[in-house]
Design brief:
The complex is a heterodimer of chains A (about 180) and B (about 575). With about 180 residues, chain A is mainly α. Chain A is built from eight helices and no strands. Chain A is elongated and about 85 Å long. Helices cover about 75% and strands about 0% of the residues of chain B. Chain B starts with 10 loop residues before the first helix and ends with a helix. The chains are: A mainly alpha (about 180), B mainly alpha (about 575).
């Protein structure tokens, strides 16, 4: 209810200010006699904008309370290893349709959930080390995306090569995590 | 296909990207002169890319199409930078000439060089930040995501191409019908208040007063732009509705303007227009202020990008720093030359112009890339205004020289944002960043030149080989008009300052609202004739209704290509008819 009210107040303020600004000033004058209503309208509009921001803050606060506890990013990251290695091992024997489905499932089940909480890596390990891990992991993600694209484009060899690159990049991530 | 090398950076993709880039550039420069804003070409290019690479050539891949759209959107965006700035020079020169003042002189070459420098700098300054913005910060870049969605949509390219072609055809036929005058019914308009006249449908029926502007512009391009914007374009429509359905009647009611034709001209031309300019400026500047968190993040990005340089860079997936350094050096040199070649600029001023301009340009590109990544709204107009104002102070109020910098900055910030959007798309489909960077680096400058030529050609399409766009013509060039207003204000002071100030205050408040870009959209709506805003709003509502009934997938697969076709069809017809008119006159 606060948000529509805020928007309405903003609009009323804008209408008052803009209407007041329409009056033509007397010769040699910059502002017309209605200038005080411009100020009034702008103040009303500012109140509307402030209320609008306030309503959004309330919304965010409410949504934070209803959000469940997030998973641990390190656990999520380590959990990717097994299905990724499994995909690498079975990829040569799969058709391109099967490959694109398998890569999509891996991305949806493991990669995206980690991406949701990846910022905690930096929070816990610091900018330098956290950034190293995230930048390397971004290569994993990009190469999996490439594997999906290649498989969808029926380029079997490129899909496998991309999965291999993703696995190699993941090994770098694993070593950095263990260091 | 499985035995072949995976197609990515191919001759077909580059050639198609350049061809599409040229077409989109011409079409959207024309559209921007008409509507006051441009449209990103990525989605259109991606749809057409599929149609041609996969549908016709039967061998296109997603990453190959991504190269095509990277080139096409880069060239198109370069045009946006030109069309928001250069028309102001023409309009100002004509305005001064009408007052017997011919002091403002400019020529094609410095502007072209500035455009090229801006195009190169915009790409090179943003490349080092890819890892930070896309891989670490994971900025959203909504348009980049939308383009990736279209590219990933897969094998339905030919269907979309048919819709695109149908849109072009419908639009061309409709535009020719309107231009021919066959649909005009001036007697009906005069007697009944209903009918078509000058490409506009009048629907007052003698009941709705003229000061409520009961007129809708029958441009399919205009409606299609609204269709692409959908819900996001509603503030634009609302701005116009408030201006002409609330403020205008109130003005007449208060006795500040008579309810006659002269009164309506007064309301539109001397009241709403300058207020609208003020709102655009206030909204754009507040947009920059509201981007301060993004600006701070951008500085943090620079610092951490230096710290993390080389991390994950084992593969040759990034353009080398040497290439970037050489590109930057060459662009600064071009910047200097462009400034030095402008009349009245000394060598010292050109050096200042090149150095300060490059520093400001880098910062502006960074800000706009961040803002685009966070919100998809680019505060380009605000940056252009700041650039021109800053340079007018530094260059002793030399308008032409200041605009050379303005052109470079505008082109550069557009390129920075576009490059990052394209790299986001590339990330989502697994493209190699270096290949995208190479093609954008190599081709984007062409867009600046083409846009400049189109602006010159359209200007020459008016009476006496000039005045082809601007207020009172079919191409009102609202952004150019707004910038011209500022140039006049800075150089002369003989302007409706009170209305600009009031408008700026209103725009600043709207710009501070949580809905990004609201100030600029509302200001544009007040500035433009309501017939355009109303037509655009109808397009927005059409999209919203279709989306509600058929869903967003239907909109993406059917409405987007059809709307894109409508835009391209009318814009190209407009440009071709203008060219024919120019040829016939000569």
């Amino acid at each position: 209810m606060l948000k529509p009210t805020a928007i309405l107040i903003l609009l009323i303020g804008v209408v008052i200010a803009a209407t007041a600004a329409m009056q033509m000033p007397a010769p040699e004058q910059t502002f017309a006699s209605s200038a005080r209503f411009i100020v009034l309208g702008v103040l009303v509009a500012i109140a509307g904008v402030a209320l609008w921001h306030g309503s959004l803050y309330q919304e965010r606060k409410g949504s934070r309370k209803t959000t469940s506890a997030r998973s641990d990013p390190f656990t999520l990251l380590r959990e990717i290893k097994s299905p990724l290695l499994s995909l690498q091992a079975t990829a040569p024997n799969q058709s391109t349709d099967q490959l694109s489905a398998a890569v999509e499932a891996l991305i949806q089940s493991y990669v995206l959930p980690f991406s949701e909480v990846r910022h905690r890596i930096v929070e816990q390990l610091g900018m330098r080390r956290g950034a190293e891990i995230l930048v390397d992991f971004a290569i994993v993600e990009r190469m999996l995306n490439r594997a999906w694209s290649a498989a969808s484009d029926e380029s079997h060899s490129e899909a496998i090569a991309s999965i291999n690159e993703a696995t190699a990049a993941f090994n770098v991530v694993s070593r950095a995590l263990d260091a | 296909m499985s035995q072949e090398q995976y197609r990515e950076l191919t001759v077909a993709a580059v050639v198609l990207g350049i061809i599409q880039g040229i077409i989109l550039n011409v079409a959207f420069v024309y559209a921007a002169l008409k509507l006051g804003f441009s449209i990103g070409g990525s989605t259109v290019a991606a749809i057409m890319g599929y149609a041609i690479l996969r549908g016709v050539m039967r061998k296109g891949t997603m990453v190959e199409n991504n190269i095509n759209q990277t080139i096409a959107s880069g060239m198109n965006t370069a045009g946006t930078g030109i069309v928001f700035t250069v028309p102001a020079l023409f309009l100002l020169q004509a305005s001064q000439a009408a007052q017997g003042n011919d002091s403002l002189q400019f020529s094609f070459l410095p502007l072209a060089i500035a455009g090229i420098a801006g195009a190169i700098l915009g790409v090179v300054v943003i490349i080092p930040l890819r890892k930070q913005m896309i891989e670490l910060d994971r900025l959203r870049f909504p348009s980049g995501v939308a383009t990736a969605t279209i590219i990933r949509a897969g094998s339905t390219g030919l269907d979309k191409a048919i819709l695109l072609g149908a849109g072009v055809l419908i639009s061309v036929i409709w535009k020719l019908l309107l231009e021919s005058g066959w649909l005009n019914s001036p007697t009906m308009v005069a007697n009944w208040g209903f009918g078509i006249q000058s490409e506009e449908l009048h629907f007052g029926f003698g009941i709705i007063p003229d000061y409520c502007a009961p007129v809708v512009y029958l441009s399919l391009m205009n409606m299609a732009a609204g269709m692409l914007a959908g819900r996001g374009g509603i503030p634009f429509f609302l701005g116009g509705a408030i201006a002409w359905w609330v403020i205008s009647p109130a003005t007449v009611g208060l006795g500040w303007a008579p309810a006659t034709e002269q009164g309506i001209t007064l309301i539109g031309g001397q009241m709403l227009r300058p207020i609208g300019i003020g709102v655009i400026i206030g909204g754009a500047l507040m947009g920059v202020v509201m981007s301060i968190p993004a600006i701070r993040a951008a500085f943090a990005t620079l610092a951490s990008a230096t710290k993390t340089a080389g991390v994950g860079g084992r593969r040759s997936d990034e353009m080398s720093m040497w290439t970037i350094a050489w590109g930057t050096g060459a662009a600064i040199l071009l910047f200097f030359l462009a400034s030095r070649m402008t009349e009245g600029v000394t060598t010292g001023q050109a050096i200042i112009s090149a150095i300060v301009g490059t520093l400001w340009l880098g910062l502006a590109a960074l800000i706009v890339a961040q803002a685009t990544g966070l919100t998809d709204i680019s505060p380009m107009s605000g940056m252009a205004l700041i650039s021109v104002t800053l340079m007018m102070f530094l260059l002793n109020k030399n308008v032409a020289a200041a605009m050379v910098v303005g052109v470079a900055v505008c082109v550069a910030i557009g390129q920075g944002a576009d490059m990052m959007q394209d790299l986001k798309t590339g990330f989502m489909i697994g493209a190699r960043p270096i290949k995208q960077q190479i093609v954008q680096f190599a081709t984007t400058w062409i867009g600046a030149i083409i846009a400049l030529v189109v602006v010159y050609v359209l200007w020459a399409g008016g009476e006496g080989d000039q005045n082809g766009f601007g207020p009172g013509t079919a191409l009102p060039a609202p952004q150019g008009g707004a910038l011209m207003g500022i140039l006049e204000a800075v150089s002369q002071g003989d302007v409706p300052l009170g209305k600009y100030v009031a408008g700026s205050a209103i725009g600043a408040v709207l710009g501070a609202a949580p809905l990004s870009g609201m100030g600029v959209l509302v200001g544009l709506a007040m500035y433009l004739p309501f017939s355009i805003t109303l037509g655009y709003g109808l397009g927005c509502f059409t999209q919203m209704i279709v989306q509600r009934i058929k869903g967003s997938t239907f909109c993406e697969e059917k409405l987007v290509p059809l709307a894109a076709g409508l835009i391209v069809g009318e814009a190209l017809t407009g440009v071709i008819l203008t060219a024919i008119k120019i040829y016939s006159n000569k």
